[in-house]
Amino acid sequence: MDLSIIIPAYEESKKIAADVKAAAAFLQTNHFAGEIIVVDDGSSDNTTQAAEAAARLISSEVSLNVIRNDEHRGKGYAVRTGMAQSKGEYVMFADSGSCVPYENTLDGLKLLKSGGCDIANGSRKMQGCDIQRGQSWHRRMFSRLFRLFIVHVIGVPAEFTDTQCGFKVYRGEVARQLYGRCITDGFSFDVEVILRARKAGYRIKEFPVTWTCDPDSRLSAARSLGPVLRELIAVKRAVARD
Question: What confidence score (pLDDT) does residue 225 get?
Answer without folding.
Answer: 73
